[in-house]
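input
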Amino acid sequence: MQRQRGLALSVLLVWGVVIALVAILVIRVLPEVIEYYKISHAIKAVAGQSSGKTVAEIRHAYGQYAEVEHIKTLGPADLDVYKQDGEVFVAFAYERRIPLVANVSLLIDFKNSASARDLGQ
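output
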């Protein structure tokens, strides 16, 4: 008599639960990560065009990018615009709390900065 091979039902259920939990985590976190990359792209574009502009003009330019990209997380007033060694830097930092299950949540700190030099200009 040959020995049968395969997975027991309990092992299959455990793997199903693990895969489901990972899928839930990815589904909840992925939109926030996509939003972060949209903001980073907008900041790099604004920083690349920032030479000779005032802080208000830089924030307005970001506001236009944010409107086109439907960015609601970070407004123009939340940007840190500063000059270092004669170069304009645009930076941002924020945190998002993502509820997972019951009273368990995931806290992610997002931050980035960009300048015209980052784009090779």
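quick obs: DSSP finds two helices and three strands in the chain.
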